[in-house]
């Protein structure tokens, strides 16, 4: 259980965000598999998502997965239900106990 990071395209390999830092990310979220239905996408909105990592502002899978990415890196984050929205889900977009797969690109952080 947890989050799995599958690196797709390397970043700078030197600069990694730390808990408490603000990150700027492009993402596309899928249910169950990378080919599963899309439930949300900053790419489709053409506006990067901004959040603070490591403080519980986002799902646990992001809090633990995003700090493993270096600036500019692209990866798949696969989050088991306990690292996503768990037994409650996020109605109506995400059913209870869903595995979530995010295509992410860490654009920037500070």
UniProtKB/TrEMBL annotation:
Gene3D superfamilies referenced in this protein's UniProt entry, alphabetically: 3.10.50.40
Keywords carried by this UniProt record: Isomerase, Rotamase
GO CC, alphabetical: cytoplasm
EC number, UniProt record: 5.2.1.8
Organism superkingdom: Eukaryota
Catalytic activity: [protein]-peptidylproline (omega=180) = [protein]-peptidylproline (omega=0)
Domain PPIase FKBP-type positions: 20-110
SUPFAM superfamilies hit by this protein: FKBP-like (SSF54534)
Region entry Disordered, spans: 1-20
GO molecular function: peptidyl-prolyl cis-trans isomerase activity
Basic and acidic residues bias (residue ranges): 1-11
Pfam families: FKBP_C (PF00254)
InterPro entries: FKBP-type_PPIase, PPIase_dom_sf, PPIase_FKBP_dom
Family: Belongs to the FKBP-type PPIase family. FKBP1 subfamily.
The protein, known as: peptidylprolyl isomerase
């Amino acid at each position: 259980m947890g989050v799995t990071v599958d690196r797709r395209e390397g970043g700078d390999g030197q600069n990694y965000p730390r808990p408490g830092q603000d990150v700027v990310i492009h993402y596309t979220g899928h249910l169950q598999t990378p080919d599963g239905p899309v439930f949300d996408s900053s790419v489709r909105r053409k506006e990067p998502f901004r959040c603070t990592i490591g403080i519980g502002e986002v799902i646990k899978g992001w809090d633990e997965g995003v700090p493993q990415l270096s600036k500019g890196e692209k990866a798949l984050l696969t989050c088991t239900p306990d690292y996503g929205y768990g037994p409650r889900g996020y109605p109506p977009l995400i059913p209870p106990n869903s595995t979530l797969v995010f295509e992410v690109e860490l654009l920037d952080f500070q």
